[in-house]
Amino acid sequence: MCQFCLKHGEGEKWYLQAKNYSEDLLSDLRRLKFLEMFADPQAREREFRKANDGFGRLKKMPWLIRTLFSRIITNKMKKMHFGQVVPLEDIERIFEFTNSIVRVSCVCRESTLGKEKRYCYGVSLGPNGGKLKEIFQALEEKFTGGVDDARFEMLTKEEALAALRAHELEGLCHTVWTFQTPFIGGICNCDRTDCFAMRSTVTHDVPVMFRAEYIAAIDPEACNGCRQCMRLCQFGALSYSASDKKVIVDQTFCYGCGICRSACNAKAIRLLDRADSPVAANVW
Ligand code: SF4
Ligand code: SF4
Predict the structure, then answer these.
(1) pTM above 0.90?
(2) How many CB atoms are located within 10 Å of the residue 72 CB?
(3) Mutation to probe ligand 1, out of 264, 265, 271 (largest number of atoms < 8 A from CB)
(4) Along the chain (284 residues), what's the average pLDDT of each consecutive run of 10 residues?
(5) Domains and CATH numbers, the chain
(6) Which member of 152, 232, 252, 255 has the lowest number of beta carbons within 10 Å of its beta carbon?
(7) How far, in Å, CA of 238 to CA of 229, rounded?
(8) Beta carbons within 10 angstroms of residue 250's beta carbon
(9) How far is the CA of 223 from the centre of ligand 1 (A)?
(10) Side-chain-side CA neighbours of residue 134 (13 Å)
(11) What is the distance in A from the centroid of ligand 2 to the CA of 19?
């Protein structure tokens, strides 16, 4: 169990608790202020630039100072905007108790690629996008002078799941995100090139998301050594044994996203509980 499961999930998976999606949490003024930053293109750009400059400065620091700064940033982000990798089957469980899904443009990609890419999904207990959609539309009006309803694409659960499966084939890893923890407002589909959070966590060693509650395991009997799974793993957790002609998982590197499974026609990969892994139970 990650720290959030203990703190916000009473020992169960915190992102499967409906209370963490409650619309009541959206009355909190601090949270509304924070959401405003996401909707204001200039404020967002400023934050991303600050983060990029920060990564550059961190890189030049001696190891001890860098570690200290990294912890300070992680602890701050845990209160504000923190994520966790979640495999598709748990997202299906989230969709069982949420009532609407809105696909929107990914703010990271708007900044890194300079164009709209719809890889983010707002989830809500309310119908028709709930309060969260209302808030974002009001903010869009405030910052751009009008609301473009086409930017808020309502999806059925089936449509959203089909889109998420397609993202897996692109090698994108599903993550849930808080907006002033513990409120969860969205699901993103991340990669290391375009997403600030993945870059921060994996490339710069400043974690802003937990790994999944799972780790991957490969059945050596079923694995035929085709190496297709290796194409999709963004975390360097898979390697090929030339002598055995099989792929193996280094569970200490595995984020438990389960994306590798979508490339495995032999169905040789399973997700196991991270808690049961002697080497990865406490690696988050
Ligand atoms: S995709 Fe499946 S069969 Fe192919 S190497 Fe990976 S685990 Fe083995
Ligand atoms: S090996 Fe682990 S980290 Fe890599 S794709 Fe599979 S589940 Fe994700």
Answers:
(1) yes
(2) 11
(3) 264
(4) 94 96 92 88 88 89 93 95 97 96 92 90 93 89 83 94 96 96 96 91 94 97 97 96 96 97 97 96 95
(5) 3-205 (no CATH), 214-276 (3.30.70.20)
(6) 252
(7) 8
(8) 15
(9) 5
(10) 9
(11) 29
